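Sanity check

After download, print the first record. It should look like this:
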Amino acid sequence: MLQKCEGIIIRTTDYGETNKVVTLFTREWGKIGAMARGAKKPSSRLSAATQLLTHGYFLVNKGSGMGSLQQGEIISSMKSIREDIFLTAYASYIAELTDKAAEDRKPNPFLFELLYQTLNYLNEGYDPEILMFIYEMKMLNVMGLYPILDQCAVCGSTDGHFSFSIREGGFICHRCIEKDPYHFKLSQAGARLLRLFYYFDLSRLGNISVKKETKDELKRIISAYYEEYSGLSLKSKRFLDSMDSLRGMV
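Expected structure tokens:
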């Protein structure tokens, strides 16, 4: 049965000489896989529409198994991202995180909108690191993870100076700090941003400027939390980290 959807291509895999299997995150159906026959031929009308990160309308022949992609109409090819190796690395990580965290065929319009907005902001030149942090924080709920960011994870207190405890799964106040000798120190700016990134509506994103040391702090905490609880090991994240250290040397 031929059906139309709005989707973003989050993964492509070569299949045979000329075909591709594409994974689409769609507004209507969530994550689906589809065979794009002949898409590897430069002359194919599916060639441009099946590039990674392409946002478009797609005609899919849906069955009980994998569907087949019949047609694609590009809304945005995310041109600025493609032309920048660093932005491509960030966008690839966001796409892979979505692919690994989202369940098949489970509609999630909120997640579609989040993915679309994040890639769009990346494409428009917003700070890629900040966008990555926001996306990572917002993906936690999709994976069934709920960090405690509005009170102390141990005593429930909402006032005081907070650190972050991976073991307790969230903020830990100065009174309970000895409960976790491995806690991460957290500046007030860092605590505010973690909370903001987790709760706020991405469509209201203005220009957020964050100092490098605060970014480093957020990166350490979010990475450690993911490592402990997400169960994910993503190639694109390792590549992004190596790119970051490379950029530090330039």
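If your output differs, re-run the checksum step. Summary of this record's structure: DSSP finds seven helices and seven strands in the chain.
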